[in-house]
Design a protein that fits this description.
Helix content is about 50%, strand content about 5%. A hairpin with a 4-residue loop joins strand 2 and strand 3. The radius of gyration is 21 Å and the shape is globular. The longest helix has 21 residues. It has a two-stranded antiparallel sheet with strand order 1-4. Strands 2-3 form a two-stranded antiparallel ribbon. A two-stranded antiparallel ribbon has the order 5-6. It is mainly alpha-helical.
Length: about 450
């Protein structure tokens, strides 16, 4: 293993081989559509469609093939052809179902991200300008109306401002991109409480602007657990998303009023929201409120390590903030928290899927980030173990080689999954939860090509 290799050569070879095999299966449109339909029937709602969705559709497949073209130069022509074919499929779907929302998940930002990822030879320059203009127009109308309580999709990575801003920070300067960036930064900065009455990072005044009221919870059972509201602490849907997006805006050279102060405030809040758990610094899924309207740190419960919730996603955002602020104390907290998550995973193995969002691939992706951007020996050492675990769940007898695990609670009422007490393993082609994301994570540690695609999660 050389200084620039992330894995021993034998492990890298295995990871590369499985990733490429998965991607070859994902070239078969009939197989992919059939798998998506079966998975959707199991869960009781659409989980993958041959449309413009980035995380669960043809746009995500195009992005995966574009990365394969960069990572596998010997077969680049094949992968670029696949990327453009699947991008055309995604674009064609918008004629029947125009993208009326701006976000990454099911909106204009998602298809724009995929187009930008496939624009290796500037063939989509005009298309991207048009998408950026449409996005700027949609963003002008996007956000909570007067008097409406906050929902996570107003600001989060998956469907909200954080994901939109993260995309804009990666685009070349232009009128529409500047409008998107300025509006995204302004709105996120305005929500940050940088000078509350008592000024402490654990003061309720700092957290209240991000409070989600019980009537706006997105998951069943949350009202019983947190009857008085909470602040979401996950990277996918919580305040780490705005922190990552604002940090990336700063690192990209943007200098809006209050931007640095907002990054500082959110970083301090997230560090203060951790506590010393059994293995070290840890976080909960949410910061709950009590009946008096105050935050209630004593009611927190440790979260399982994942991209979407728990220490891996939170520490990824903190690492971005540390680089934006030039703050070694925030960097140290991020490293400590991620290394704690690795210890937690070793000490308490649990049933988990392979995917980016909730599973091993997401942790592997963030582990790559810590292994390449910090001096964490623990992160570097964990890469091979995580790859081995991920490969252990891959089986060529499965249609897409790797299967996504869904717990019972992920099923819609009345669905087959909701009636399965042990959950179910499904064939999922998607980027966020399925086979495409697993292949990308494996390829991103097996090859030295930077994972540009990971900016779609604000985790790259």
């Amino acid at each position: 293993m050389t200084d620039t290799d992330l894995l021993p050569s034998a492990t890298a070879s295995r990871a590369r081989k499985v990733a490429v095999e998965i991607l070859h299966r994902l070239c078969d449109r009939e197989l992919v559509v059939e798998a998506g339909q079966a998975a959707s029937a199991m869960v009781g709602r659409p989980v993958w469609e041959p449309g413009a969705a980035l995380y669960a559709g043809a746009a995500g497949s195009a992005l995966a093939f574009a990365h394969a073209a960069r990572a596998c130069p010997d077969s680049a022509g094949h992968w670029w052809a696949q990327a453009h074919q699947w991008l055309k499929l995604a674009a064609a779907s918008t004629r029947e179902r125009p993208l009326r929302r701006p976000g990454l998940s099911l909106g204009t930002t998602g298809i724009a991200f995929a187009v930008a990822g496939c624009d290796e030879d500037d063939r989509y320059v005009r298309t991207l300008r048009g998408l950026d203009t449409r996005l700027a127009e949609q963003l002008a109308r996007f956000g909570p109306s007067a008097g409406r309580a906050l929902i996570v999709h107003d600001y989060d990575v998956i469907s909200g401002l954080a994901g939109i801003l993260g995309y804009a920070c990666r685009r070349p300067a232009g009128t529409a991109v500047q409008r998107i960036t300025a509006r995204g930064v302004e709105r996120l900065v305005a929500r940050c409480a940088t000078d509350g009455p008592d000024g402490g990072a654990l003061s309720t005044s700092r957290w209240r602007p991000w409070r989600i009221a019980p009537e706006n919870y997105g998951r069943e059972g949350e009202r019983e657990l947190h009857p008085h509201g909470y602040v979401d602490l996950g990277l996918a849907h919580g305040v780490p998303g705005p922190l990552a997006a604002l940090s990336r805006a700063w690192l990209a050279g943007h200098r809006a009023p209050g931007l640095r102060e907002a990054i500082r405030a959110l970083a301090d809040q997230l560090v203060a929201a951790s506590w010393p758990g059994e293995h070290g610094r840890t976080w909960s899924r949410v910061m709950p409120f009590d009946a008096s309207g105050e935050i209630a740190p004593s009611l927190r419960q440790p979260a399982d390590p994942a991209y979407c919730y728990g220490a891996p996603g939170i520490t990824s955002a903190l690492l971005d903030a540390a680089e934006a602020l030039g703050d070694e104390s925030v960097r140290a907290a991020a490293i400590e928290g991620f290394e704690t998550a690795l210890l937690q995973m070793e000490a308490r193995p649990r049933r988990t899927g392979p995917g980016l969002c909730h599973g091993l691939a997401g942790v592997l992706l963030i582990c790559r980030k810590f292994a390449t951007r910090t001096r964490s020996a623990a992160a570097r050492a964990a890469l091979e173990r995580l790859v081995d675990r991920l490969l252990g769940g891959c089986d060529p007898s499965h249609p897409l080689i790797v299967r996504d695990y869904k717990p019972q609670v992920a099923g819609e009422p009345g669905s087959v999954l909701a009636a399965s007490p042990d959950g179910a393993w499904i064939d999922h082609p998607g980027l966020l939860d399925g086979a495409a994301g697993v292949a990308l994570a494996l390829l991103s540690v097996a090859e030295r090509v930077p994972p540009r695609w990971a900016h779609a999660l604000l985790a790259g």
